[in-house]
Design goal:
It is a single chain. This protein is α/β, with parallel strands linked by helices and 344 residues long. It is built from 13 helices and 15 strands.
């Protein structure tokens, strides 16, 4: 939709002078629902807002800007996302309320029609929040104006994080672990999963872009980087795969650990286990392999790409190959057609 020129939410240079007292800066409150990837994206939004002069306050405090990064993986997630948006209306009635993320991608018109947000940004636009804030009309209270919806179809091209300035936007505040988004979307089309519809098909983050953020995270004092994405093992950007990412991070000064958040068992290359087993490599011996069901019939109905036997064989091989491996998984119950035997 067209954007009319208006006064930006922050000064034109997107930064307030350092001399401006903290209590004179516009306040922003952020709330995340859903997955680890959503959390990593909210952290990127926080950094961008702080770099633009906002003072980020705890969720529930009054603010001039409230951002809810929504989830839609279940009906309960939908309900919690709407509940958070309503809560923001109550504690900050004059705030500009932005709904971002997966529910904003799947049901943007409904969120606007129900008055739950003033700005609705789908997954392709959430990390361009500052740009959309600058185009937001001024004047009347946000809730009195029609909501703006920006939720275009999702591209399959490699992406970058817009407005990311490594030198200015990263502070550790004493934290030692940071999440690094390197991939988004999925091509696997499991029958229980809405992710391909709301996050699009698999696409990598540009290698140079993710490496620049990783370097800045290490320089800011983070000791561990957790790689996040929807389907990490499918990372492929210009011939570089997940092993290239891991090895590049292994060479960063100041970084002590690299961790993979979760990986599909059919995409975990043998080279990952070799690196986990190498005491000199910073990739920690941590492997989260989703199982979803131990019943072959249920896995087939889910359109998972492995059998229970194949999953178990890989897990057992990993435990042998990597001394002290921390192995985790997750299991779904109540899948349609699951009987007592499949549950057991």
């Amino acid at each position: 939709m067209s954007r009319s020129p208006i006064a930006p939410a922050v000064p034109a240079d997107d930064a307030l002078p350092p001399a401006v007292p903290a209590d004179a800066r516009p306040r922003a409150a952020l709330h995340t629902l859903g997955c680890r990837l959503n959390g990593a994206e909210t952290d990127l939004i926080r950094r961008q807002l702080e770099g633009a002069g906002y003072r980020v306050v705890p969720w529930g405090e009054a603010a001039e800007l409230c951002v809810v990064n929504t989830c839609t993986v279940t009906a309960q997630a939908d309900a919690k996302s709407r509940q958070a948006l309503r809560a923001a209306r109550r504690h900050s009635p004059q705030a500009l309320l932005a709904a971002t993320g997966c529910l904003a991608q799947r049901q943007p018109d409904a969120l606007a029609r129900q008055g739950l947000a003033d700005l609705v940004l789908g997954n392709a636009e959430k990390l361009a929040l500052l740009e959309h804030l600058a185009a937001q009309p001024g004047g009347a209270a946000p809730a009195a104006r029609p909501a703006r919806i920006i939720a275009p179809p999702l591209s399959r091209q490699p992406f970058q994080v817009p407005g990311f300035d490594a030198a200015e936007l990263i502070t550790s505040a004493g934290d030692t672990r940071a999440h690094l988004k390197i991939q988004d979307g999925c091509d696997f089309m499991c029958t229980f999963c809405v992710i391909p519809a709301v996050r699009g098909r698999a696409r990598p983050r540009a290698f140079a872009d993710l490496l620049a953020e990783a370097e800045a995270l290490a320089a800011a004092g983070y000791r561990e980087i957790v790689l996040t994405g929807v389907n990490l093992g499918t990372y492929d950007e210009g011939g570089r795969d997940l092993l290239h990412v891991v090895d590049a991070l292994n060479g960063l000064p100041g970084l002590a650990r690299v961790r993979i958040s979760s990986i599909e068992p059919t995409t975990a290359a043998a080279g990952l286990l070799e690196r986990m087993a190498d005491p000199a490599h910073r990739l920690v011996p941590f492997l989260h392999l989703p199982l979803q069901s131990g019943a072959g019939r249920v896995l087939a109905a889910m359109r998972r790409r492995y059998t229970p036997g194949a999953w178990r064989a890989f897990a057992e091989a990993a435990l042998v190959a990597v001394p002290g491996l921390c192995l985790g998984t997750d299991v779904m119950v109540g899948f349609p057609g699951e009987d007592d035997a499949a549950f057991a």
